[in-house]
C-alpha cells in the first residue's frame, strides 16, 4: 500500500502545472508552485526507490537517471525553440552545470554525509572508474573540443562535427548502459550488502511497482514543467541582479537534479554509497549522452545556432573536477575529507558563476 502523501504530492504538483500552463504563475502562485515542485521531488524519490527495489540494482538507479534526463532534454529543447538565437548557449550551460553539480555537489554531499555517519565507506572501483572515464571522454568531446576546433568561428562545431559528436556521445552512453546492466553488472553492485535492510526487505508487489512507476512519471513531468514555468522568474531575477546569463542554466540544472540529489544523499546516509555513485555518475553520463544528440538534431534540422565550447574559466573548473574525482575514486574507500573537497569546488563553481 503506497503512503497517501506519495500519491497526493504528485497529483497536487500536476494540478499546479496544469493551472500554470493555463493561466500562468504569479505572486503567491509562484511560491505555491515552488512548494509543489519540492513536494514532487520528495514523491519522485520515494517512487524511484520502490521501482528500484523491485527491479534491483543497478537497473533501479538507471530508471530515475534516464527518466529525469529525458524530461530535462525536452525542457532544454523547448526553451531553445522558444528563445531562438538567444538560447544558443543554454544546452552548454545546463550540461556543464549538471556535470559540476553532480560531480562536486551531489558526490560531495554523499561523501560528507556518509563519512560523518559511517566514517569510511567503500564501493566498487571497476564500475565507478569506468563510468568516470566515459564521463571525461563525453565532456571533452562535447564541451572542450568546440573551443579549440578551427573549422567554424567561435566555440562551435560545424554541422559535420556536431553530427559526429552527437553520434559518438549516444554510442558511448549506450555502451555504458550495456556494461552496467548486462555485461559487467556485478561491477555496479555493492560488495557487501548482507547488513543492508533495504536490500533484504520484502519487494513491493507488481501492482505497487506499476503504480509507483506511473506516479514517478507524473512527479518528474511536474518537476520539470514547474521548473520551466518558474524559469522566466529566474531569468528576471538574474537580470535584475546583474548576474551572467549562464546562471540561468545553473538554476535550471539545480531544480531538475533535485530528485537525484535527494535520492543519492539518502542512499549514502544509509551506507549504500555504491547506489549513490551509480546514480550520480549515471545521471551525468545520461545528461550528456542524451542531451547532445537531442539538441544536435534540433539545431541541424531547424538550422539553429548552438554554442558548446566552454570558456577558459569553466575549462579549468572542469579539469579540476575530473582530476579530484580521479583521486577520490582511486582506492574504493572514501571519508568526509573527500566530500569536503568536492563541496569546496562546488561552492567555487557557484561563486564564479555569479562573479566570473
From TrEMBL:
Parts of the chain that traverse the membrane: 31-52, 59-83, 95-116, 128-148, 160-179, 213-234, 246-265, 277-302, 314-330, 337-355
Transmembrane helix found in the keyword field: yes
Principal subcellular localisation of the protein: membrane
InterPro entries, per database record: Alkaline_pH_Ca-Antiporter (IPR052946), NaCa_Exmemb (IPR004837)
Subcellular compartments: Membrane
Residues in Sodium/calcium exchanger membrane region domain copies: 28-181, 212-354
Keywords: Membrane, Transmembrane, Transmembrane helix
Origin superkingdom: Bacteria
Membrane topology: Multi-pass membrane protein
Stated name of the protein: Ionic transporter y4hA
